Amino acid sequence: MTNPVVFEVQPFAERYKLGVIRLNHPSALNALSMEMIEQMLSQLESWRMDQTVVAIWLEGAGDKAFCAGGNVVDVYRSLVTSEETRFAHRYFEQEYALDYLLHRFPKPIICWGSGYVMGGGMGLMMASRYRVVTPSSKLAMPEISIGLYPDVGASYFLNQLESKEIARFMALTGYQVSATDACELGLATHYIMAEDRDALIASFANASMVELDPKKVTSIIEQALFTRSQSDELPLLKPELTALQPTVMTLMSGDIENVYAAMLSYSPECPAMIKAKENFLNGSPLSAHLILAQLDWAHGKSLESVFMRELQLSVACCAQGDFKEGVRALLVDKDKQPKWQYGRISDVPKERVMDFFKVEEPPLPPH
């Protein structure tokens, strides 16, 4: 049986090592299973202690996706077969522990975010110091379509964007951000052609470092990335989302009722914005409320407190939210006809939203 995650070491500066993590389930767009998460946690702990491993390279197998999200179908099945949320709690707990470990990892992490980078994939990529996109990259947080909300630390990293409205827009619409826009917004750090991947890794190997020096490791990585990064004049896609920022500012202002009214009357012209409007209007009304409540709460909060609150909220979405129905409709039965608990955003009582945040916050596992 094929291992769902492949671990390798490549040479780095001749005498040292680059730890390579390859998500290896391309037929599922490298969606993260519990097994994959636990294997990565274990290997990263080992590499953290190994002084010969000086940096980590994170990628996905195949040419379609780095990672299209968490394997939420497994979580769904656990909820269908049992009323308990034990597996759901364990899954999200481990996924967030992995994301938190990557955020705090003492060695540089380079994420090769080619193809789809969605949901759980965004959690991995945004936790990496160097976030590389290629022409095929599409970054998105589409959780409103499955009755969830942007988790995996998105409450934190979306709040790092300069524009609150862009953060809201991504969270509420599942808009697929292009490589160019990802760089413009700060979601990505480098834009590199897909065919330069091997040459980039080779340049790490061919560098020179006489003795272990973290600053030199950083210098080698940054020089190699800079050398292969595309300039603004070369085959970059035209930025779309950043060009539409004035429109997004208008659409995403005020409370969720204002946003709903603005989106309802909006007549988009480009296909990406048409799809964004559809995603929002067809998504879970309850999730729409939770998304803005969580983003507003998380502004200025620490990474640790954000992950603790996300664990509480994600389990609550499994137990009493639209998550189970959303996954059924989109990913299991695939009828795309979810029966949400509320028909419209205006139908969701404020007290109902607040109920999701009253559960005692569970501790994040130490990693």
UniProtKB/TrEMBL annotation:
<dbReference type="InterPro" id="IPR045004">
    <property type="entry name" value="ECH_dom"/>
</dbReference>
<protein>
    <recommendedName>
        <fullName>3-hydroxyisobutyryl-CoA hydrolase</fullName>
        <ecNumber>3.1.2.4</ecNumber>
    </recommendedName>
</protein>
<dbReference type="InterPro" id="IPR029045">
    <property type="entry name" value="ClpP/crotonase-like_dom_sf"/>
</dbReference>
<dbReference type="InterPro" id="IPR032259">
    <property type="entry name" value="HIBYL-CoA-H"/>
</dbReference>
<feature type="domain" description="Enoyl-CoA hydratase/isomerase">
    <location>
        <begin position="19"/>
        <end position="357"/>
    </location>
</feature>
<dbReference type="Pfam" id="PF16113">
    <property type="entry name" value="ECH_2"/>
</dbReference>
<dbReference type="GO" id="GO:0016787">
    <property type="term" value="F:hydrolase activity"/>
</dbReference>
<keyword id="KW-0378">Hydrolase</keyword>
